[in-house]
Amino acid sequence: MAFGATAASAQQATAAPGAADAADAAAEAGSTSGGTARTRKQQLEAVVITGNPLNLRDVVAPVQTLSGDALTLKRGASLGDTLEGLSGVGSTYFGPNSNRPTLRGLDGDRVRMLSNSGASVDASSLSFDHALPVDPLVLTRIEVLRGAAALQYGGNAIGGVVNAMDNRIPRLAQPGLGGTAEARLGGAANERGGAVVLDGGTSAFAWHVDAADRRADDQRVPRFTSEDGVSTHVRNSDSHGRSGAVGGSLLFSQGYAGVSVEDYHNEYGVTVEPDVRIQMQRQRLATAGEWRDPLPGLARVQWQFASSRYKHQEVEGSGAVGTVFQSDGKDGRVEAQHVAIQTPWGPLQGVLGWQWEQSDFSALGEEALVPSTTTRSNAVFLIEQFKSGPWSLQAGARGEKVKVGSTGGDEERFGLPTTRRFSPRSLSLTGGVELGRGFSLSSSLSSSERAPTFYELFANGVHVASGAYEVGDVNLRMERAKAVDLGLQWKQGESRWSVQVYQTRFSNYLALDASGRQIAQPTEDGGVESVPEYVYRGVRARMHGVELEGHQPLPALAGWDLTLGTTLDLVRGTNLDTHEPLPRLAPARASVSLQAQRGPWLIQASLRGAARQDKVPALDTPTAGYGILRVNIARHFDLGGMDAMWYVKLDNLANKLAYSASSVQTIRELTPMPGRSLFAGLQVKF
After folding, report:
1. Hey, where are the domains in the chain?
2. What is the pTM of this model?
3. Which GO terms describe its molecular function (predicted)?
4. Band of pLDDT at residue 7, cut at 50, 70 and 90
């Protein structure tokens, strides 16, 4: 069984520049079984979902996708770890367990996390030590969307969107039984994990079942010195996660309607403290469907609704529960696409949509830094696009109503019950033109607004993860940004290159700034310590950067097909009020990779480097540069008529000591990046 040619990332249309390392250029293996249903599924997955409500084959927005063997070879312990290294993508890296993706230097509530295009209810944006309730082992596809098209998901997608997708609500018939089983072992944390995904049904009904389990020890790293002395492990970084889901869909000639139930549990150590653990769980009930050609003038209607209950406990070494975080959320989204309207400039296609979300959040315990809150939002959006010859143009608008309320609390610091109302607006214009000879040009303009979150408004307490006393401002105004993107792509056969430049100006960037004050706080031994105070306030800010990706076939050598991949990304951010750099920005990064493929064999080698990051705020410290060498080896083979693949991953071969500049300063010196490791896995598709 040979490796196929499905692209691992896309930039305008389906161009696929090389990703951060050679694994991202790996392709999904073909299959001779499954018949028409398998073919239709592959065709469906070839279309970008995120930011593409018109289901177009050619999209103007900068989108990266990860699926098939590329995803298998990139999977890490977390979503941030899995995506780390894609051009323009980083992670908050609070040790191996808490890695939330960052896009173009933006994190937290400026990066929208989606689960099958719906809201992901959790507490990951509140604190760096809160993990995402997502298991990469059961994902079939991940899409990363940046630029103006992301704004259809709201103002908190200013940085972009990460959409984690699975097949828990089937969209296509799967006659008989099919699925995937995978087992993994090794790595810097001695991971032992596996997953089973089953899909089946008839022409009228499709069902899905999946289960996954993953255990890991404290992460091994090169020898380093911390407050605990010399060590070769990241303290308190072990974990045990497990998940399961059941789903099913009724299928009919004009669409489908389905439902799924999922359960996720994760227990992991919080590296900032030697004996504190987080016990996390989330249950989610979701329904989704599509009705094609429902009425004259309508091409299709899509809908999805979900109800989630998220809870995690922070447990002390003694077994006592310190703080309990809970979030109950509901969300819904409906999109109606009209049939193409013929105009003098070409066919006009469009979607009118409605989105609704609500969440009730509480943090109870001695380390709670926010009161109980409620958040409600309603939004309508409109997207219209036409294509005429080599030209394409897309315009979008979104209006929201957001209400954020605090119930106050028994503690005086949380004050009286308070409610704030906001009306964010977003506008975007995106265009593209095919220049000939494989070249195409894309550009976008956008204006967006983001309502402050509950913690930006109401925080008032010590945040252990950041080592600061954080204070919100109930009078904050909306965050406002104007952005411009310009991209140039070239595609000729299997050769693909792209470069993207961008700039975003914030007139009211909601920053967490040091006030210069010290707040006295009691310690466990009865003493008093001083904690620096940080206050949320609106400032003027500017972010700009460049992203380059390339994927270039080379002449074959001794029967091996060779492919060169390269990436480069650079982001700069400045607080224009203080003229200091914005915190936790990744340095300039570059990678070069070589992939060799012959029949069922695939060998990949990549070198990824990061420059020294010395453009930091006054209270932060520079981070040294590094270079990481990786090698992947994989082979497809037939196992009793089933498509199987074994793989071996060697990471950080030189055992380089490296730190992440995007980690919060209080944890950076405690959590070096993984050391030299060997990882092996076996995947079987049937």
Report:
1. 22-227+235-317+327-685
2. 0.90
3. siderophore uptake transmembrane transporter activity
4. very low
Amino acid occupying residue 280 = M
Cβ-Cβ contacts under 8 Å for 431 (sequence gap 6 or more)? 60, 391, 392, 393, 394, 442, 443, 444
Residue 132 is given by DSSP the state: P
Phi-psi region of 559 (alpha: psi -120 to 50; beta: other; left: phi over 0): left
pLDDT tens sequence across 580-620: 999 999 999 999 999 999 999 999 999 999 999 999 998 88
Output the six-digit token pair for 376.
């409600």
> What is the DSSP pairing of strand 601-610 with strand 460-463?
unpaired
Instruction: Let me know: does 671 contact 648? Beta carbons within 8 Å.
Output: no
Distance CA 603, CA 390 (A): 38
Cα–Cα distance measured from residue 54 to residue 349, given in angstroms and rounded to the nearest whole number: 7
The answer on pLDDT for 24 being more than 60 is no
* Token representation of residue 538: 């609106």
DSSP structure class, residue 578: T
- For 595, other C-beta atoms within 10 Å of its C-beta total 28
pLDDT in tens, 538-580: 999 999 999 999 999 999 999 999 999 999 999 999 999 999 9
Strand intervals (E) in 466-583? 468-471, 479-492, 495-522, 528-557, 560-575, 580-581
Fold classification of 22-227+235-317+327-685 (topology level): Maltoporin; Chain A (2.40.170)
Closest CA to 206 of 256, 243, 137: 256
Structure-block tokens of residue 268? 């992991």
Q: Which helix (H) or strand (E) holds 60?
A: none
CA dist 83 and 85 (Å) reads 6
